[in-house]
């Protein structure tokens, strides 16, 4: 009996089928490839991760710089993304998920507290010192936090998707557009309307 393979993972949140009668631009699950004979060495290199990011942006005091097909065209179809994570004092990459990728992070400078929670509610956390590595499984809520209140920290992550997607739990809940119905947030988080308004304002930075 022959093997049955599943469909390839999507590279975007959704790909809605157009009406048979519609005449519109074609959207692909990914990015078009250019003529291979026109490829150059510059397509396979980037300096995007060489520059420190601004870590003074509230409320999280972090900056994440990623490689994309825009700054690294040769990345297309490779199923890979690299990210530079700059942390200010007490900077945090808040609880979030990558729906299309697992992630491996290497601490390069400073000390980070990292962790994830699995679907049973079990939490795995670890302090990362320079040179140490941690893996975040695909689709699970995870975070990274600079435990030093003054000094900066730096890490690099690799993800096994060209477009891993990122959903920060707090922003997705309180800053969605259009916004979640207030009653849903009040019931989900056991808070009142004033709390909802305060959290929304705080997350706007």
From TrEMBL:
Transmembrane segments: none
Residues bound to oxalate: 98, 103
GO annotation, biological process: plasmodesmata-mediated intercellular transport; regulation of root development
CDD domains in alphabetical order: cupin_OxOx
Disulfide bond among keywords: yes
GO CC list: apoplast; plasmodesma
Pfam family for this entry, one: Cupin_1
Binding site for Mn(2+): 96, 98, 103, 142
Domain Cupin type-1 as annotated: residue spans: 47-197
Disulfide bonds: 15-33
Xref: InterPro entries: Cupin_1, Germin, Germin_Mn-BS, RmlC-like_jellyroll, RmlC_Cupin_sf
PROSITE patterns listed in its UniProt record: GERMIN
Keyword Signal: yes
Subcellular location: Secreted, Extracellular space, Apoplast
GO terms for MF: manganese ion binding
Keywords: Apoplast, Disulfide bond, Glycoprotein, Manganese, Metal-binding, Secreted, Signal
Superkingdom field: Eukaryota
PANTHER family: GERMIN-LIKE PROTEIN SUBFAMILY 3 MEMBER 3 (PTHR31238)
Family affiliation: Belongs to the germin family.
Entry function: May play a role in plant defense. Probably has no oxalate oxidase activity even if the active site is conserved.
Protein name: Germin-like protein
Lineage of producing organism: Eukaryota, Viridiplantae, Streptophyta, Embryophyta, Tracheophyta
């Amino acid at each position: 009996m022959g093997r049955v393979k599943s469909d390839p993972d999507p590279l975007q949140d959704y790909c809605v089928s157009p009406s048979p009668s519609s005449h519109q631009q074609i959207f692909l699950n990914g990015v078009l490839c250019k003529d291979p004979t026109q490829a150059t060495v510059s397509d396979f290199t980037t300096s995007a991760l060489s520059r420190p990011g601004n870590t003074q942006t509230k409320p999280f005091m972090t900056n994440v710089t990623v490689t994309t097909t825009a700054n690294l065209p040769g990345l297309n179809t490779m199923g890979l993304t690299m990210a530079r994570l700059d942390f200010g004092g007490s900077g945090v990459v808040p609880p979030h998920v990558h729906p299309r990728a697992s992630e491996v992070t290497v601490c390069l400078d400073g000390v980070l507290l990292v962790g994830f929670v699995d679907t049973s509610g079990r939490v795995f956390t670890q302090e990362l010192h320079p040179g140490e590595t941690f893996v975040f499984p695909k689709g699970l809520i995870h975070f990274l936090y600079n435990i030093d209140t003054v000094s900066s920290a730096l890490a690099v992550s690799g993800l096994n998707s060209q477009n891993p997607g990122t959903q920060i739990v707090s922003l997705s809940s309180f800053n969605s557009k259009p916004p979640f119905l207030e009653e849903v947030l009040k019931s989900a988080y056991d808070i009142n309307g004033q709390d909802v308004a305060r959290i929304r304002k705080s997350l706007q930075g």
